[in-house]
Specification:
Blueprint lengths: L12 H9 L3 E2 H8 L3 H10 L6 E2 L5 E3 L1 H15 L4 H23 L3 H61 L4
Antiparallel strand pairs: 1-3, 2-3
Helix pairs in contact: 5-6
Length: 174
């Protein structure tokens, strides 16, 4: 089922209905539904993150619900801080998972099935290791930001105290 468009992104009234019905959308409608720019959508195509769009008889790009799903995924991963290279890797992992799943169910050979499952296990281990490394980097950045915030707060308190003392000294006694 296609992802619902973000509620904070404006969209034209008919596009959500067209998307739900599976009708291919022109790039302008995709922009409205996803919140991405047309230039960004075309760039994702050029970078191989999105398959080239189908074309209408007038050569206008047309996007189906699976394209929209992929664009939402790319956007969400980008918003989560993943680079385009990391996004490409995650998308390829997902494609490999789908290929492995299809191959697994297409055979009754136990050895082939074991090899497919072992490959999937190795893929998930690599993904978890990568995510753990990213979490560790983010945690270190967070600790540094907390430390810097504490330093700024200290400096702010010192400045406030100095200002208060200066105001008290210049106050005229009654």
């Amino acid at each position: 089922m296609p992802r619902q468009p973000r509620s904070d992104v404006p969209r034209a009234s008919g596009h959500a209905r067209d998307t739900a019905a599976g009708a291919p959308l022109p790039i302008g409608a995709v922009v409205e539904v996803t919140g991405l720019t047309a230039r960004t959508v075309r760039y994702y195509e050029q970078m191989g993150l999105l398959s080239p769009a189908a074309r209408s008889s007038g050569r206008q790009r047309r996007y189906d619900p699976s394209d929209l799903e992929r664009l939402h995924t790319i956007r969400d991963l980008g918003e989560a801080g993943f680079s385009l290279a990391e996004i490409a890797e995650l998308l390829e992992d997902e494609a490999a998972r789908e290929r492995g799943r299809a191959a697994f169910y297409a055979t009754d050979d136990a050895q082939v099935r074991m090899a497919i499952l072992e490959a999937a296990q190795a893929r998930y281990k690599r993904r978890i290791e990568g995510l753990d490394a990213r979490i560790a980097r983010l945690a270190a950045l967070r600790r540094e930001a907390i430390h810097r915030l504490a330093l700024v707060r200290e400096r702010l308190a010192t400045e406030q105290h100095a200002r208060d003392e200066a105001s008290a000294e210049t106050a005229v006694p009654a």
